[in-house]
Amino acid sequence: MPRIFLVVVDDTEEWRAALRYACRRAQHTGGRVALLHVISPSEIQHWGAIEDVLREEARHEAEQRLQRVAREVNQLTGTIPILHIREGAARDELLALIAEEPSISVLVLGADTASSSGPGPLIQYLTSSKAIARLRIPLTIVPGNLTADAIDALT
């Protein structure tokens, strides 16, 4: 069974460093990359039809985004990534996916190096709470300011 490197695709800049690192590690170890995009729940809950339309649009946008990233993964690794789209709180959905998918081997996250508030909400949550005890796989944190060349040299 190949190693599966899970990357969270979100609205930050640092996830790209995590993606490149995961792609290079997968390429060098005969593994694969899995991508997770979590759609935040709609805040409009009083108007069912509008909420349904917004949810459908958000899902469509998530699918398009993951398809673009999947092409990039394919160019870097020569393999097609595994795609996951979930709706809810990012940290809850991330932990649920890891618990549900025994094939996932490593979680790769990019750390925000420009912010004074810390490396990012997911990393803060996973490293400063009981969540780390729920993580059954290694967590690799990649500094978000690494260049592609620096990442390639590391892997």
Defining traits:
5 strands, 5-stranded parallel sheet, alpha/beta, 155 residues
List the helices and strands and how they pair.
Blueprint: E1 4-8, H1 15-29, E2 32-39, H2 48-77, E3 82-87, H3 90-100, E4 104-111, H4 121-127, H5 131-134, E5 139-143, H6 148-154
Parallel strand pairs: 1-2, 1-4, 2-3, 4-5
Helix pairs in contact: 1-6
Question: Helix coverage percent of residues?
Answer: 40-55%
Oligomerization state of this entry?
single chain
**Major sheet attributes:** 5 strands, parallel
Percent range for β-strand residues? 15-25%
Bulk shape: globular
CA(first)-CA(last) distance: 21 Å
Number of helical regions: 6
Low-confidence stretches: none
Tally of extended strands? 5
Order of helices and strands: EHEHEHEHHEH
What's the gyration radius in Å? Answer: 16 Å
What average pLDDT do the residues reach?
A: 92
Biggest sheet strand line-up: 3-2-1-4-5
User: Structural class, judged by helices and strands?
Assistant: alpha/beta
Account of the protein in words:
With 155 residues, the chain is of the alpha/beta class. 48% of the residues lie in helices and 21% in strands. It contains 6 helices and 5 strands; from the N terminus they run E-H-E-H-E-H-E-H-H-E-H. A 5-stranded parallel beta sheet has the order 3-2-1-4-5, with helices on both faces. It is globular, with a radius of gyration of 16 Å. The two termini are 21 Å apart. The model has no long low-confidence stretch (mean pLDDT 92).
